[in-house]
């Protein structure tokens, strides 16, 4: 590609050409540009004829076109990045401008989300900081609403070391938040670029930072963005931590966009305009895009401590990617100049595996404080405090004087002072140090406030009438009575109550008293289950359960039209507290649903729901459901059949419903569920996608519920989670989302903290459902919080759960094994003898102890007893025995059982069992059949992350068995970040792969993780085998001895035991 | 902030009137589009690193969604909107380029020269937008359709397919026009060094 010299001027000046010539040029150019260069000359000559001007022009343009290919391909906006700065200057608030009762004093900062001003609260006469949000962020109701819950939590944190959020508001379209004004410096200005902070001061900052985080963690909030920029040091020595809950919030910006499996945080960085420099404070799990928890904050505190002491962050690199790699892989350089105790603390906070760090900030805090006590000779403090107070004299101004005369405020200040008095003086020294250090002399005031806090809060707090209190609040539950039908038209029976339920369910404000609770109360009242809830029965339930209100509906004929009447009655007195009547305009039945939805909205408003939420969620019923009363009737019957566990009736009615109205999304969803219950996998998927296609016309609640359902059926688990999370945020009183999430987080994603939180929320919303209690207990056990697990079982019992149900018995059994609680084990054994074994715990315990023959006998007993009652899951039951046997390499039975697995059944658990079968076969030397099964899963299930996670498990086992440890590691990587759903498998396989590669230290870490987390799978043989793995990794006699102790009663012929003895002898 | 007071409905109405032949409506319409784009550009620059042309399209899409009455999103008003927005985008960007140029007066605005092969690489070179705008004005006189293509492709960051859709042309026609426009403009910009 040579440019001809003077090429550009060769072309004819087109000004000299006439219009015809130009047209020709354009045409010929167009056609010529598609030709190969070899044919070009002939073509041009024949086309241009004698017209030299045209010929030369086309040639010139073609030549340039060849070389100017990338010209203008970059986009104009690339040329002027300055555009941003200039546009930013617009829309700024001026000094003296009023924002509500706040007077703007000056612009003090500017961030990715908007500007920050120093302002004066003219009512309270104090300085505040105001963060004005960028307009486009303020206007997006989806986004602001999503922030809402998170931000309320953030602003509710009340701690002297956490920046206080005063209020939020709106000006024009822009939202703003008002916070405490902090006069001081950020930690960023003190550290980094070789600037260090002396140990006692660094410790003090670490302590206050940890105090703030501890308070947040207690409230269930993880900061996730701890860094020096977010730590302010006030003149009086207080540390203020900013930006609470933000990182979490950022994660939630658009779940449909960033699925859980993606490397979320790095992406989010660019979107929110965060500086990429903040990568430095990310934890390894954040860098890997894995699930994060409190321990992520502990890591970041470690990085901050390190930076204060070393003057640089522990993990550096020339690019973001390098820095992230360093965080994930590299050990930090040891700080040789610091006190050994300090280094030990920092080192422990910077453990790559969260399980190796401090497990709570409180633990960290304890160590920091003890050490500070040790290092800090008291007397110095006084002197430094005095020097601080001298310095402060000059900083006061009019406003501060005003503030100090305000009694209320001063008291608050004093309380806070007392709260932190223990370490206040050291902190003052920090500030003094800051003031005296040249590196940050002459700094302007710098305020950073939590971005976006409580944005959008006001839309929720607007009541219909502001003078009288609303009859209900969003803490109350209402009871629905039967709908009275005086028309004699049979079709309206039952239909109207379903329709009303659906209509009122659109409200995030109201919560309808759950059916299960009603049934329980009926039992207490010595009434028949399923008895119609007449007004009398309703009034009695309300009194017993202390419910605020019940709602009764009537449909009647008035002349040529219908009248829908809804009344809400005071649950205690029976008096009417709100009523709505809406007539139809004709005798058309189609209009009834319209009238009902109108009446329902009216009633919602009268009961105290804000107009804003009504407006947002109110949709005509026929849009939500169907315009066909017949279809609605069939749907109601289907739901009723579902509650009776009548899978067949459910299917028939649902089929009828969608036949009458193919646009009835909820009908399709019901049908899909019915098919699933009837084990019709493909039909179920089809019906789910029908429902999903119709989702756009649905209001939020149904749309999200159907989306989640659909993604569940198609194994798009991450999208399923997003839909449920959105539903949870929008309908915090709806149990569906948290119940679904608890299941997914626990079983599919192995994210037990999240599962626990969701399950606890489910229990809170509907304590009568045993499943929710079970989830809570499960997750406590998985997290190693056994005492809490036991309390949760007791709580389930208090709420009427049947303690003879095998799951509770199994959970108690598991805890007893872990805690070595012989009394409980004896009690369990007695129950077995009395009522028969209803769980395989004792059989598994025998395998756990290496006693194969006994395990098999107990298992056989259990299988026989279970099969007497139900034949449903024989495969599952035997499958578990096989899996446990295969772990200890006792394969005879397993090979016999591992027949072609059932793949038709769409339940997720079955995919796991199928994968488990492949694992068993792989461990038992039948690689070929194992591969067959793996590919059958691939064929049968869609190609999604969760399916590939599941398949990675047997793949990794196979690779290890075939002595391909590196491949195994690759497959194991494929299981992340959901590997905890596989209990010990991931760690076991990883440990074994490292052993095979001779990476002993890495292997030891994996096995140690198992030994530290028995709750993940309390009686798995992989647990003792992890001890063996550790012994092998450390080549330590002592560790071998611990293993032998675990298997002291084991059968002599276990291959692992024989091998271990040999190795031990050789040591 | 004036534009935010205008309900989307009236923009839709104006677009209709404009497409029905009332050219004066354009005078009312352009400032609105212009202001909206400013705002979008603001948001856009804050959160994205410049360099991705596609994101400009996203920006215009967003503007469209905000400005047009969502209940009547007929195809016609959509394509009209894009045509107008592309022109407005050009104006916005040129205005900035002009302002930037003024500031830099005394320095040498970078221009393309043929001796610098690498200068053709858009990723490395800097294009004098002001000069480009002048060149476009000349191109307008002889090949007006190509100017539209440039506005849509370069200033609005649309793909060939999108440009074809907005202009109601085939993809290959747009590709040819684009190729020739680039060659023509390139020659125009370099011959003045």
Strand order of the largest sheet of chain A: 1-2-3-4-6-5
Q: Could you say which structural class the secondary elements and strand pairing of chain B correspond to?
A: mainly alpha
**DSSP strand content of chain B:** under 5%
Structural class of chain A: alpha+beta
- The number of helical runs of chain A is 50
Label the overall shape of chain B. globular
Mean pLDDT of chain B: 64
Q: Rg of chain B to the nearest angstrom?
A: 17 Å
Question: Rg of chain A from C-alpha positions?
Answer: 35 Å
- Choose one word for the global shape of chain A: globular
Structural commentary:
The complex is a heterodimer of chains A (1067) and B (193). Chain A is α+β, with helices and mostly antiparallel strands and 1067 residues long. Chain A is 57% helix and 9% strand. The longest helix of chain A is centred in the N-terminal third of the chain and has 20 residues, at 199-218. Chain A starts with 6 loop residues before the first helix and ends with a helix. Mean pLDDT of chain A is 76; it is low at 1-12, 84-90, 146-150, 245-277, 378-468 and 900-909. By secondary structure, chain B is mainly α. Chain B has helices at residues 8-19, 25-47, 53-67, 75-103, 129-142, 144-155, 160-167, 171-190. The longest helix of chain B is centred in the middle third of the chain and has 29 residues, at 75-103. The termini of chain B are far apart. The interface between A and B is large, with 52 and 57 residues.
